[in-house]
Design goal:
The complex is a heterodimer of chains A (177) and B (477). Chain A is built from 6 helices and 3 strands, in the order ααβαααββα. A 3-stranded antiparallel β-sheet of chain A has the order 1-3-2. Helices cover 45% and strands 4% of the residues of chain A. Chain B is mostly helical and 477 residues long. The longest helix of chain B has 30 residues, at 129-158. The chains are: A mainly alpha (177), B mainly alpha (477).
């Protein structure tokens, strides 16, 4: 036991210098060369959009708190959770006359994993086009065109889902004079 | 949906493609053969051993390996307890987060030192950056411990002797510097260029488009996430782990992080084939593990893609699958894929909330955790599988009435206590760090005085004999 004690302490200190110190600093150095200088892409953080003027973001279990991320972690058959989903459906239908239930994509009535999901599905953006166009008094084609422009396809056109970044989309809307 | 499935195929293919050369490399590292990274790491290792006063050439018995491993783990526990309970006044705390209470610190320290990474705190508010970097250190070296112990078992299976099983410190340092460090470096570099933060500044303030002011937590995330994934650690930097848009910003980072989860676990199987010069056996083991993995994976993916039936009943279209607790940029398929990967390898990181998944996925995720050897954790996954092999050899030995043998090694009555441990092991579900595994590896003199354990397993053995006797009587076998 004794023969192992001193080497263990020394080895731990050396590991701390190497892994917590040198490795961390090296990655920090590399990060300075990146486009965001290691500060993170804040535009990738989902924001709350509840106004009718904007495309809505997904519901969040933590009210889009970017300093305390969390999902709901509610089970799929939890009655309390299903009541919450029903309430979201009702709210959505009230704000979107003419849209039928089956047209609402699931991502607009369920909360994301982080509570900060920056994206909505393409269907979720399309279903909101009518409302946004009406409130902003823009032709629907124009709003649909902006959605089309801000649709991010799968990675290299092959891998993963298509999606729309809600913040970028709404920024583009605000730029229209 | 088609592109989502294609994403899964890409992720699996990529891992196999990378794991084969990596396994060869790991095999060389354990066999002390020369590799092209020696030029950097030979001097580094020598320096580490000189400064720490370790004689890396001294061969150890399994008992010495055990003591060396326990002592160094104890040392880590004490350091983490100190840092976690004193974070408030220690440096690198720009957000002014408080110190942990004693019980929470103990829970966190034990969980990170043992590579478990159970988190009863949320990273944004519960840890300072110093706390994060301390936990990151354990993510490196607890994973290295797992790989080192696995290397010892490789040696035990290979060598003719039982008291010359290499040197624990040497295996440990080689695992950390030559396997984990270069890989973590590459993964972290890929992440920072894709928007994962790596900064020591505190929270960023921003005003949202609707005029709310919001604070965004940041930190040295990229370095942490890389080793979190590679070392099958799993403890996230942020509360929601890799579901967070800054911890896993897009589908590309999701591919990198998912592949990192089971790259080393698969490579360890190929390393086994290389070290023991039994490539065919390694392929058989790989095949069995893959079969088990796919049996868990495929129904889970299908179940998530089909969505939550309770929501379908409400009349909502679920074209994208079950989306509660999942992020749109990954989609249902890649979330289910991650869920099965992370539980099969005892990683534990998430990119979606598992509690909100459909019941079948939840069940298969649990099963993956219990088996813990469909690839399994780095090092320890193979060790767990080794226990299953020994069990199978022992049982088949009873069935055909021959002395059980594996790799030319006699599993006879003389070593019967070893079987006792093996039989007891799946019942006790060994922790991640292989105390039980160490005792099943070849040992010259069996542990005596474990009366309770051997009584249980003697009962099991007798039960098996009765069972097989019964079957033979009825001419079933």
């Amino acid at each position: 036991m004794k023969t192992h004690f001193l080497p263990a302490i020394k080895l731990t200190i050396l590991c701390a210098i190497l892994f917590s110190g040198i490795y961390t600093c090296a990655i920090w150095g590399i990060a300075q060369l990146s486009p965001q200088h290691g500060k993170g892409e804040i535009i990738e953080i989902g924001q709350a959009f509840t106004s009718d003027r904007y495309f809505w973001s997904r519901p969040s279990a933590v009210g889009h708190n970017a300093a305390g991320s969390a999902g709901s972690n509610k089970g799929p058959s939890n009655p309390e959770y299903l009541a919450e989903v029903q309430a979201r459906i009702d709210t959505f239908l009230a704000h979107h006359p003419g849209v039928s239930k089956s047209e609402i994509p699931a991502d607009l009535v369920t909360a994301g994993g982080s509570g900060l999901d920056p994206h909505i599905s393409v269907e979720a953006a399309r279903v909101q086009v009518g409302r946004v166009a009406r409130v902003r008094q823009l032709p629907e084609d124009r709003v649909a065109g902006i959605v089309q422009q801000h649709t991010e396809g799968p990675l290299v056109g092959l891998f993963g889902p298509s999606r729309v970044n809600v913040l970028k989309l709404n920024l583009a809307l605000d730029e229209i004079k | 949906m088609y592109t989502e499935i294609l994403g899964l195929v890409l992720m699996y293919g990529l891992v196999i493609l990378l794991a084969i050369p990596l396994g060869r490399y790991i095999g060389k590292v354990f066999s002390y053969e020369s590799t092209w990274l020696d030029r950097i790491f030979d001097p580094l290792d020598r320096l580490i051993f000189r400064l720490s006063g370790v004689d890396a050439k001294k061969e150890m018995t399994w008992q010495q390996h055990l003591v060396a491993m326990l002592v160094i783990n104890c040392c880590w526990l004490v350091i983490s307890l100190f840092v976690l309970t004193n974070m408030a006044w220690l440096p690198l705390n720009p957000d002014g987060n408080p110190s942990m209470s004693g019980d929470l610190a103990f829970n966190t320290a034990v969980s990170f030192v043992t590579n478990t990474n159970l988190q009863h705190y949320s990273g944004e508010t519960g840890l300072s950056y110093l706390g994060q970097l301390t936990l990151m250190l354990w993510q490196f070296i607890s994973a290295a411990t797992g790989i080192a112990v696995c290397a010892v078992v490789f040696m035990a299976m290979k060598e003719k002797t039982t008291d010359k099983l290499g040197n624990f410190y040497s295996f440990f340092v080689r695992s950390a510097t030559r396997i984990l460090l270069p890989l973590a470096f590459i993964v972290a570099a890929l992440l920072v260029f894709n928007g994962v933060p790596m900064t020591f500044e505190g929270k960023a303030d921003m005003i949202t488009l609707q005029g709310d002011s919001v604070q965004v937590s940041r930190g040295p995330v990229a370095a942490f996430v890389a080793i979190k994934q590679l070392g099958t650690n799993g403890g996230g930097f942020f509360g929601v782990n890799s579901a967070h848009p800054l911890e896993n910003p897009n589908y590309f980072t999701n591919i990198v992080e998912t592949c990192s989860i089971f790259l080393i676990p698969i490579a360890m199987i190929f390393a086994f084939g290389y070290v023991l010069k039994r490539r065919k056996l390694a392929l058989i083991i790989f095949g069995i593990m893959t079969l088990g993995f796919l049996l868990l994976l495929i129904p889970s993916v299908i179940s998530e893609i089909n969505g939550n039936p309770a929501i379908s009943q409400m009349g909502i279209g679920q074209k994208a699958g079950s989306m509660e607790g999942k992020e749109v940029r990954f989609g249902a398929a890649a979330s289910a894929y991650w869920a099965i990967n992370t539980t099969c390898t005892s990683n534990g990181s998430v990119n979606a909330m598992h509690d909100s998944m459909t019941p079948l996925t939840g069940m298969f995720a649990l099963l993956g955790m219990m088996v813990n050897s469909f690839y399994g954790g780095v090092g320890v996954g193979f060790l767990n599988f080794y226990i299953f092999i020994i069990l199978a050899v022992f049982i088949s030995g009873l069935m055909v009435g021959r002395t059980p043998e594996f790799l030319g090694k006699n599993r006879s009555r003389r070593n019967e206590n070893r079987h006792d441990h093996c039989l007891a092991a799946p019942l006790a579900h060994p922790g991640r760090h292989g105390l039980v595994e160490l005792s099943v590896c070849r040992k010259p003199n069996p542990i005596r005085g474990m009366a309770g354990q051997s009584r249980i397993s003697r009962f099991q053995r007798n039960a098996l004999r009765v069972h097989f006797g019964f079957c033979q009587q009825r001419q079933w076998i």
